[in-house]
């Protein structure tokens, strides 16, 4: 059977497999030797070929470690290619392994039979919550944790979450109920959210960025702070220094990796790394603008300056990457940073005629120049703010799907739940399982389930 009919990720034959029995004619041999015609669309506008670079090892799905069932399939009676009935039996066995999911769309209805006791002080009967029980809730924690996962991990709107549960599990509830699930999780997760804010303020190196948000038709801002282990989101109506202080406090004692936005000056970081990728983007935009000028307005020196700055950024990032590959040598890194700073000053020595390019040159000669090379003075500080940019991407996708929020509680939902979801993921935990613990256990147990390392200070109390 030809391999084109196989839709498997793993396909192999038993030992002593014989070669393909299809006759090899001269035409077929010539067609096999000649390369397929290249399509102009197979190359990007910059001339690079699409796909992985040459020599990159192929990615293949790992073979499953066990087989759950074996389905015998009889040999065909006619050839699937030419429909010839003249087939001969072959002892060789063709095996095709595929993985699939098992859908069991059903709900489990649980009745918790509580033994009660009478409290003479309260003058009422009291009882304890059972395992996995949410007192007063008619929908269990597994459904609510799944709804929160769909909402804040996969960016699914509440109406589609309601439809998903109705179609797959026969569990019907209105979209407003999904919003109620979020409020329950937020009330339980607020202590963890505030504890996470304090952990962010104690970091030695933190990334920060902000992006636009819409709240009831008005412009808002989504702030991010974190590192590879923690993620903190805060939705605020302002993009000011006061908004930055709500995240980092009035004085941040670590190194802050961010862009050149002035609001971050309000947190007074001990050290600051200004993103080099933004410098390269600014130089590239100026070069494109200069390329459109005609006649006497053409400024060849300014265009060459922009190209030199882009090359300097590439050289700086490559030098930092080489330093980080091995053991960090502080003296060597410091010398390299000083050499790169001298090179930048040399590139910015001559004044430029084009006003925007001249303003950019003066900016690189100003106080920001020292902030561009902090990564060579402090270990574990990257030259760009790519980590924060990637962290904000899911929030940007959510904004395009739901078009923002309408209430203050909705702002709180997005701030708290997205922070906890992303932190759980970075801690190597499954967000769905963490939220199941959050909805059914105490605050201290939920805090222990959120982090992969033992807590260095007393756990939170309910």
Characterization of this structure:
The chain is an alpha/beta fold. The chain is about 40% helix and about 10% strand. It has 14 helices and nine strands. A five-stranded mixed β-sheet has the order 7-6-5-8-9, sandwiched between helices. The longest helix is centred in the middle third of the chain and has 27 residues, at about 175-200. It is globular. The model is unreliable at about 1-30 (pLDDT under 50).
Main attributes?
14 helices, 462 residues, five-stranded mixed β-sheet, disordered N terminus, 9 strands, alpha/beta, two-stranded antiparallel sheet, 10% strand
Shape: globular
Q: Give me the count of strands.
A: 9
Distance between the termini: 64 Å
Largest sheet: 5 strands, mixed
> What is the strand content?
5-15%
Q: How helical, in percent, are the residues?
A: 40-55%
**Poorly predicted ranges:** 1-32
Number of helices: 14
Kindly state the mean pLDDT as a whole number?
A: 86
Q: Give the SSE string.
A: EHEEEHHHEEEHEEHHHHHHHHH
Strand order of the largest sheet: 7-6-5-8-9
Q: What can be said about this structure in brief?
A:
The chain is an alpha/beta fold and 462 residues long.
């Amino acid at each position: 059977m030809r391999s084109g009919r196989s839709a498997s990720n793993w396909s192999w034959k038993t030992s002593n497999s014989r070669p393909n029995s299809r006759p090899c004619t001269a035409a077929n041999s010539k067609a096999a030797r000649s390369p397929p015609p290249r399509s102009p669309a197979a190359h990007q506008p910059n001339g690079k070929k699409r796909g992985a670079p040459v020599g990159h090892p192929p990615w293949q799905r790992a073979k499953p470690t066990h087989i759950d069932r074996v389905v015998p399939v009889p040999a065909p009676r006619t050839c699937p290619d030419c429909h010839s009935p003249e087939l001969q039996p072959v002892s060789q066995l063709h095996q095709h392994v595929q993985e699939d999911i098992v859908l069991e769309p059903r709900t489990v209805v649980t009745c918790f039979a509580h033994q009660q006791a009478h409290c003479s002080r309260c003058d009422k009967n009291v009882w304890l919550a059972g395992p996995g029980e949410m007192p007063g809730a008619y929908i269990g924690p597994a459904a609510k944790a799944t709804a929160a996962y769909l909402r804040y991990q996969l960016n699914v709107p509440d109406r589609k979450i309601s439809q998903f549960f109705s179609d797959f599990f026969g569990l019907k509830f209105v979209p407003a109920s999904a919003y109620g699930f979020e409020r329950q999780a937020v009330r339980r997760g607020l202590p963890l959210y505030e504890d996470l804010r304090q952990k962010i303020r104690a970091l030695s190196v933190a990334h920060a960025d902000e992006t636009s948000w819409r709240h009831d038709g008005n412009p808002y801002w989504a702030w991010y702070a974190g590192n590879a282990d923690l993620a903190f989101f805060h939705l605020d109506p302002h993009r000011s220094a006061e908004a930055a202080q709500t995240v980092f406090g009035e004085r941040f004692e670590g190194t802050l990796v961010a862009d050149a936005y002035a609001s971050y000056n309000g947190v007074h970081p001990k050290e600051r790394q200004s993103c080099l990728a933004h410098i390269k983007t600014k130089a590239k935009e100026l070069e494109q603008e200069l390329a459109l000028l005609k006649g006497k307005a053409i400024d060849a020196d300014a265009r060459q300056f922009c190209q030199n700055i882009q090359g300097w950024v590439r050289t700086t990032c490559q030098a930092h990457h080489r330093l980080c590959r091995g053991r960090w040598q502080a003296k060597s890194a410091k010398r390299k940073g000083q050499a790169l700073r001298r090179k930048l000053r040399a590139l910015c020595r001559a004044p430029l005629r084009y006003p925007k390019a001249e303003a950019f040159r003066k900016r690189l000669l100003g106080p920001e120049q020292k902030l561009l090379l902090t990564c060579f003075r402090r270990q574990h500080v990257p030259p760009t703010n790519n980590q924060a940019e990637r962290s904000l991407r899911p929030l940007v996708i959510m904004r395009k799907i739901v078009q923002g929020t309408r209430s203050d509680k909705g702002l709180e939902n997005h701030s708290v739940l997205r922070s906890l979801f992303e932190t759980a993921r970075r801690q190597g935990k499954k967000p769905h399982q963490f939220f199941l613990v959050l909805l059914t256990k105490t605050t201290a147990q939920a805090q222990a389930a959120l982090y992969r390392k033992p807590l260095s200070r007393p756990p939170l109390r309910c």
